Amino acid sequence: MNGFLFGFGAIPVFSTGLFLPAEGENWLPLILLLLAAALGAYLLGSINSAVLVSSALFGKDVRSFGSGNAGLTNMHRVFGVKGALLTLVGDVMKAVLSVLLGLALCGYQYGGYTALAFCVIGHAFPVFFGFRGGKGVLSAASAICCLSPVVFFCMIGIFLLMVLTTRYVSVGSVTAAFFFPLFLKAFFGSLPFVVLATSLFTAVLVIFLHRENVRRLLRGEEKKFGQKEPPKDE
Question: What does the domain layout of the chain look like in residue ranges?
């Protein structure tokens, strides 16, 4: 039986959520709950911690500096450890809340992975901040940790290996995203359609959001981990 936090079998109440139709029953209530979970996760994902922290603490929009990305890496590069830590806490919290909402409404299989995908969409295209957000790596990782810790730790291992060997955070992020659906398949075998579709979508989206990083890597212009980008006014 699928559950929360330990991959499978941890908390049975999250197995089905509020409603899971039996064979031959009306699926409309589940579809409506799934839409509610998707919308809730998107709105939570749209609360961009990097923009809020940079504006509140430093009076600047992090998207105006460095890579222009409203995410943890650019936040650390531009505003340092304090801003990055607050951004990390905010992004982790919104991802966990998104997953909890999805689990409560529609269960592990339907709601959990739908919430993962839509939280990342919200982070990348936040309705509250002109649809200019981050690349969704931290939000995706936090949600994956809730849904399947064993997959999360494998992805962290791949991420750290690539960052330590190349010193490029973007290389680690893209590689980990690529392996996400593969690790799910390796550990859990045959995947339900919803899990397969949302994991593939999330992986492709995160890789797509790193397209500019890939271009800079090919041109030799990508900044390595630890390089600072002072927040000078334009």
Answer: 27-219
